[in-house]
From TrEMBL:
Residues 248-310 form the ChlI/MoxR AAA lid domain. Transmembrane segments: none annotated. Residues 37-167 form the ATPase AAA-3 domain. It holds the Pfam family AAA_lid_2. This is MoxR family ATPase.
Length: 319
């Protein structure tokens, strides 16, 4: 079985385990292929934890969950030097961030220093303790979650730190038919009849898939469309007078890179060897959602980042 078929089989298996959340499954696989990190927002009980834990069961790698709380310290995430009396030396004890897949549960519960420690590890792929720097695994994916319901006692992530995430995914409630399937799945798991993944994808296969994604054909017109979408967030008035009044600050060049990589991964998962404008349109909301700073006028009108992105997709020509 070639690499793409392995990933398509993995996507089907994950969808059978994470019922009614096909978009979340797709975005996790896109993040894995694009070598980025996910910020996932949704109410409790929507299988956010289960999604990344199921992924860890189907690929070669380890998994660690970090529950973020107000009393958490940066060393609780990154690790610290521990004194060993038998050798009279300090020895580095790696923290939970030294795993292939990391779930940062309720990241906005922890203070800024802890958030920064994790986000620095995400951006630099290394941890510095004292005078020493320690490399993180080559396969390293963080999925951070936020609870949109409870905001009391939380520390919202600054915009500059939000920009480090490849995508910001909103997880909705499942439909009634999907919820009935969830009931049957949970009964099966309780009785010990749950389905296991057919095969474990090796890390070498993941790195090879990433190379295939980067080698996908993208014509100059689609590349220009990616660039113009992001540039339009900084100069919305050129395309629409309301867009200009809705946006205080547009997306950074990181958004251009993320849009390119996510569109490529989306096309690759769909079985194509080329990228279309539809691939860009499909991933644009999740790539731009956390990178747009809206004006007071937009907030007063009840306009959110998704509405702005939809207007951008309508106004910026695709070819």
């Amino acid at each position: 079985m070639d690499i793409r078929n392995q990933f398509q089989t993995l996507q089907e298996w994950l969808s059978s385990q994470i019922i009614g959340q096909e978009a979340l499954v797709n975005r996790i696989l896109i993040a894995l292929l694009a070598d980025g990190h996910l910020l996932v927002e949704g109410a409790p009980g929507l299988a956010k934890t289960k999604a990344i834990k199921a992924l860890s069961e189907a690929i070669e790698g380890n998994f660690q969950r970090i529950q973020f709380t107000p009393d958490l310290l940066p060393a609780d995430v990154t690790g610290t030097d521990v004194y060993r009396p038998e050798t009279a030396e300090f020895q580095f004890q790696p923290g939970p961030v030294f795993h292939n897949l990391v779930l940062a549960d309720e990241i906005n519960r922890a203070p800024a220093k802890v958030q920064s420690a994790l986000l620095e590890a995400m951006a630099e792929r290394q941890v510095s303790v004292g005078r020493n720097t320690y490399k993180l695994p080559q396969l390293f994916l963080v999925m951070a979650t936020q609870n949109p319901i409870e905001q009391e006692g939380t520390y919202p992530l600054p915009e500059a730190q939000l920009d480090r995430f490849l995508m910001h995914v909103n997880v909705p409630y499942p439909q009634a038919d999907a919820e009935a399937k969830i009931l049957r799945l949970v009964r099966g798991e309780a009785s010990g009849t749950e389905a296991a993944p057919r095969a474990i994808i090796a890390q070498e296969a993941i790195f090879a898939a990433r190379k295939q994604v980067l080698d996908l054909h993208m014509v100059e017109a689609v590349e220009n469309y990616v660039v113009q979408l992001v540039v339009a967030t900084r100069n919305g008035a050129k395309y629409d007078s309301e867009l200009g009044s809705w946006l205080d600050f547009g997306a950074s060049p990181r958004a251009t890179i993320a849009l390119d990589r996510c569109a490529r991964a989306n096309a690759w998962l769909a079985g194509r060897d080329y990228v279309t404008p539809d691939d860009v349109m499909q991933v644009a909301p999740d790539v731009l959602r956390h990178r747009l700073i809206l004006s007071f006028a937009a907030e007063a009108e009840g306009i959110d980042a998704d509405a702005v992105t939809q207007r951008l997709l309508q106004k910026v020509p695709a070819v």
